[in-house]
Amino acid sequence: MLDTTDLPDDIATLKAMLIAAQSREAGKDAAIARQNAQIASKDEHIARKDERIERLEKLVAAFKQAAFGRKSEKTDPDQFDLALEDLETAMAAIHAEDEADAPAGTKTTKPRATNRGSLPKHLPRIEEVIEPESLVCTCGGCLHCIGEDVSERLDVVPAQFHVVVTRRPKYACRACTDGVVQAPAPARLIQAGLPTEATVAHVLVSKYADHLPLYRQAQIMSRQGLDLDRSTLADWVGRAAFELRPVFDALIVDLKRSTKLFMDETRAPVLDPGSRKTKTGYFWALARDDRPWNGGAPPGVAFTYARGRGGIHAERILQGFEGILQVDGYAGYNRLIGPDRIGRNIQLAYCWAHARRKLVDITRNGTAPIAEDGVK
């Protein structure tokens, strides 16, 4: 039998109780939904963390292999730098995410030191002054400047192409028939060509100093609506190389006037048409740098390409030079001081850094007093 002693006396009160109970249940459902959303968000955050941790572990393993692995297993230096960049980028992304996820008011990141004065002084400065919304105090008086905070940020204007329009008006006399007067057309690096000398220089620096292939430069230009084929850029480079040849020859002559030079050769992959692979060529560097001992000659370096590494190439490049030549221990340079040399007075000075490197290798393998003395 139902006990009705505790039930409300009227229907209105009972209805209000039912509505309140439904509201409590709806609140509970909403709270549960919020908790589930928070749990899902945390699970997603943890998954991203785990993914980044796994990536960092792989990058650290690659870093260790490149730095401490066997010589035959070490990563190529360029690949090593790329791996290091990835590692640093991933770390920065994690730090930024941690800072963004921290609750407001609880961020305890270390304040950055001011960078004022750290940027090169020769860069132009564009100053902006940010004033308060009002210079009137709450008491009604005028505010006066008592100091300022100054910060500097590095800004950039991306490379922009523009068109140089050259107009040469023609003039004629109405009183006679002596002809038409017009200013001569300015000389061009490429006759009837599109580029200015600055454009060609930009392509050369991008290719040889920044290692940006011509096809990638063509892709960059296409983003600004310039439809230039890679072969067109190659034509510009070839013509510029012809025009720059006298500068190179003059640099070589100037370097050979020195009494002290440095020379070294390095491998360079060269395309081998028809074989679908590359062959090995060599760049021979002839350099002068008297700055360490405050010498008067300006620094300079010239690179000469040769198909091989034989000493005959060094002999050809150094034709006309007399003085001290600093080299490594490569035996090919002995040709320069051999008994068959004619009319040359070259003295080889071997690199101390190469000799020290060998002594350091010996000291790493165990106790070696003589090698240790040599390193000291």
Can I get a quick summary?
By secondary structure, the chain is of the alpha/beta class.
3D structure, described in words:
- With 376 residues, the protein is of the alpha/beta class.
- Among the domains are: 63 residues, no CATH class; 120 residues, Nucleotidyltransferase, domain 5.
- It contains 8 helices and 7 strands, in the order H-H-E-E-H-H-H-E-E-E-H-E-E-H-H.
- Helix 1 packs antiparallel against helix 2, helix 3 crosses helix 5 and helix 4 crosses helix 5.
- The longest helix is centred in the N-terminal third of the chain and has 58 residues.
- The protein is extended and about 125 Å long.
- The mean pLDDT is 83.
Give a quick set of tags describing it.
single chain, 376 residues, alpha/beta, Nucleotidyltransferase, domain 5, 5-stranded mixed β-sheet, two-stranded antiparallel ribbon, 42% helix, extended
What is the secondary structure topology, with strand pairs?
Layout: H1 11-68, H2 77-101, E1 171-172, E2 180-181, H3 197-209, H4 214-222, H5 230-256, E3 260-272, E4 277-288, E5 300-306, H6 311-317, E6 323-327, E7 346-350, H7 352-364, H8 369-375
Parallel strand pairs: 3-6, 6-7
Antiparallel strand pairs: 1-2, 3-4, 4-5
Helix pairs in contact: 1-2, 3-5, 4-5, 7-8
